[in-house]
Amino acid sequence: MISRVSRSVPVRFGVLIAALGGLATAAICWQQVAGEQRAGLEDLERRANLLAYRLSPATLRALRLPEEQIAPAMADRLEGHSRLLGFAVCAVDGRILAAGAGVPEFEPRMQEAVMQAAQTAQENAALSRGPAGYTHVLARPVLDDQGSVRGVLVVLHDAVYLDDRLTRGMLRGVIWTAGVTLTLLLFSSGFAWALFERPLHRLEEWMRRLRFGAAHEAPPRGLAVGRLADESEHLAASFRAARSREREEAESVMRSERAWTRERLRAHAVDALGGQQLVVVSNREPYMHQLREGRPQLVTPASGLVTALDPVLRACGGLWVAHGAGDADRQTANASGCIAVPPADPRYTLRRVWLTREEEQGYYYGFSNEGLWPLCHLTHERPVFRASDWDQYVRANRRFADAVLEEIGGENAVVMVQDYQLALVPGMLKERRPDLRVGIFWHIPWPNAEAFRICPYRVEILHGMLGADLIGFHLQQHCNNFLDTVDRMVEARLDWDRFAADLKGHTALVRPFPISVQSWSEKGVAAGDELTGQVARLRQQHGLEGVRIGVGVDRIDYTKGIAERFRALDRFFEKHPEHRGNFTFVQLGAPSRTHIPRYRDLVNELEAMADAINWKHRTESWKPIVFLVGHHDARTVYGFMRAASLCIVSSLHDGMNLVAKEYVAARGEGGVEGEGGDGTSADGAGVLILSEFAGAARDLPEAVIVNPYDTEEFAEAIRQGVEMDGREQRRRMTRMRVRVEENNIYRWAADFLGALAHAHGKPDQPVGGRP
Ligand code: ADQ
Fold this sequence. Notes:
Blueprint: H1 2-63, H2 67-74, E1 84-90, E2 96-99, H3 107-120, E3 124-130, E4 133-143, E5 149-158, H4 160-211, H5 226-255, H6 262-273, E6 277-282, E7 288-292, E8 295-299, H7 304-316, E9 319-323, H8 329-332, E10 338-341, E11 348-353, H9 357-376, H10 387-408, E12 413-418, H11 425-432, E13 437-441, H12 449-452, H13 458-465, E14 470-473, H14 476-489, E15 493-495, E16 500-503, E17 506-512, H15 528-541, E18 548-556, H16 562-575, E19 583-591, H17 597-617, E20 625-629, H18 634-643, E21 646-649, H19 658-666, E22 687-691, H20 696-699, E23 704-706, H21 711-723, H22 726-742, H23 745-759
Helix pairs in contact: 1-2, 1-4, 6-7, 6-23, 9-10, 10-11, 15-18, 16-17, 16-21
């Protein structure tokens, strides 16, 4: 179909150009013929005039004679020759008094002109058509001295030649028009074929071969549109990457008879690290101490990053360098800021980095969260870039890099830098210790090059990141965007085949590593009867007895789409009042970054929205939304996820979103009885409503996928989720759960560490290589 359509394009283009050219030529030819015709007629008239003028005095003299003497008096003056047919002298009543030899036969054609001239005393010319062609008649009144018309002198010309000239001109025009049209048709079709059709046909052939496995073949040359050529290069590279990863994955699945566990990761890490220390660097610390009633209390912050990396370090041991943000952090760490964690069962060292209030404000709240965060998330929130924030960002990054170098001393180490707050750290580390293995994992999306371009410090950030040996994102799409950004904004050499960028002789590989979660049982959550009791308590505490529950668990952030979720719930209860009283949505929202006004306002805004919706739909014993603002411990989060037959993740843009995977992981372990009494929350069931804009949507396609901006569609998805039958829920959930269990957090860490080990000094490792 595509080739049939594209094949007719050059012809259509040719016909269009030829038709336009043909019309223009025809118009020009017509103008020319008409002009020639006009000139010929004018010439004839001029000549007739001149002849009439010359003969007028003799005609007047003859007209003064008696009528029978007029003809002899004019004699052979009235004869014509060549195109001049002859003259005639007529009386004022139109009768011919004297005429040249062939003239009388034209009398009928002369009559009208003669009468007009006689009556008006004005010269009259006419072109009249007879059986032999055109004749030109000029009738000139002959006036006596008193100005009275004595008679009319007629000059007759044969104008057939004008007719011939017109026919010849028209014929010439037709030949020209046909010639030009045909030439244009041939040239423009040929041009369009050579410039577009042939390269597109080759591209089509190449894509087909690519689809059937010729992934090594370079895209065809000669594509007229530069961007198309670039994009096909990228497409080929992504295809190669995906193929290679598929192969590696298949091999890896065949190799792995066991799932990835903490123990397996530990063994793998020991191997990959080759005796070197593992260092994680992040802004957020995995264990924070806050003062509560004058005493330090341990807090584990609500963060996907901590959820992901703490189990890795617990499994492998090593060092975690992070900002000591808790108000009791200093008093619980030693003089150099170090503390063994988890405090109850130490497995690794946490080195806290101290930042001044100004540094924290500029580096974290300012540049990272008012600049880079909205820059990378496409949610229509305008990023703010202040020069003073950037200075603090550079300074704080330097502090983190210094802390790492200080802790590792002269030892060798593998450093995993985490996230957008620390983009400059890889470059800073490599500057001082080129022998270190450094990887950076970017937990949020990487936007397209055009969006990233607005950052005034884009070159510095890219240089900092390209200092790493390995740069990881959640999705291949983010990798593509990143390399495209590098391509356009810095002088680096790109290798799309290996997905690598070379800057000043240093190569950074760019790879996707979709992050995941650990199993809930490893987090020490309740199980069996204890879990059943806990769920019953949560229901009772929040007035949820006897209703079906939906749940959302988020940091309160505008990217998470909580307002859109509330709007859809409002619409759902509007459209389906039959669900009032039997379904309640519980939203756990942890306030975060509340020093930034936008975030502070959002908490108030969401509370007001939930109140308004509750007011609108509530009954005496039921309300649609229970909004629990605060950071909840893992047991509570798990309790709600077990109790809920539906979970909503409605991010407007999200790197991955761990909550979606946590909910899936929560739906498989042990049964919870008694909620809603409809059996939908029994073992293995549950519905995940997931935004298409969260990275997790790629890993969990069996979820009910929604566009959170489309309130109607979203409300309909909630109805579908609430009413979905148990068997369909289990079918979808089982597939998702198997995938989350296979691709868990340990596998993510193993993949990243394995790729980092190979990235350094072994540049020929195939794309997407797994350990
Ligand atoms: P986040 O934006 O922090 O992570 P997410 O992936 O959803 O988002 O992780 C949030 C974590 O915090 C989850 O483990 C969740 O259970 C927990 N949490 C949220 N609200 C809570 C609450 N009220 N109480 C207790 N716990 C709560 C960033 C990126 C994501 C990416 C992760 C990991 O923005 O796209 O998935 O990093 O890479």
